[in-house]
Amino acid sequence: MRALTYYVAVSLDGRIAGPDDDYSAFPVEGDHIAMILRDYRDTLPGAALAALGLAADRARFDTVLMGWNTYAAGFAHTRDPYPHLRQVVFSRSRTQADAAPGVTVTDEDPVRVVRRLKEEDGSGIWLCGGGVLAAALADEIDHLVLKVNPLVLGEGPSLFAGPYAPRHLRLTRATPYGSGVVVTEHARA
Known about the structure:
5-amino-6-(5-phosphoribosylamino)uracil reductase activity; Riboflavin_Biosynth_HTPR; 8-stranded mixed sheet; 5 helices; 8 strands; 189 residues; Dihydrofolate reductase; Dihydrofolate Reductase, subunit A
């Protein structure tokens, strides 16, 4: 069975972006970038892969899930951020007509979609954001990989934006980098 991994950058105060889905405070340089290029290359946008002369092998992930706001955050650059992956965008107000060809927009229950995807053949499923979708899928997340950045944002979308519902995870690895980023990996307890 395939696994769902929530792999995301986060601030020390649990924000996955600043107000208005502004990601500019998160560092894009530092020694943690080598790990991303080596271990999480599938999560790089298509334009970044092309600029770096790299190709995604889809060994870690072949599918990416995101909420509409996460998808729309990249509209200044593209409407097809991960052309090397199957892209599924969840929205209650947007339709397929609002997205690029090859990007699936659905208002279907995210839990039902994830359970169906987990039964398919393939590599992993990447939940890339946002916090509302993550909260809806919290019981389906098999792995949580956080790139914890040494900054406090104060405002912005939360890592999990849902009602109070404690869930215990088991730390499987923590890797600090000279950049100040600490990558923590957790599994369902």
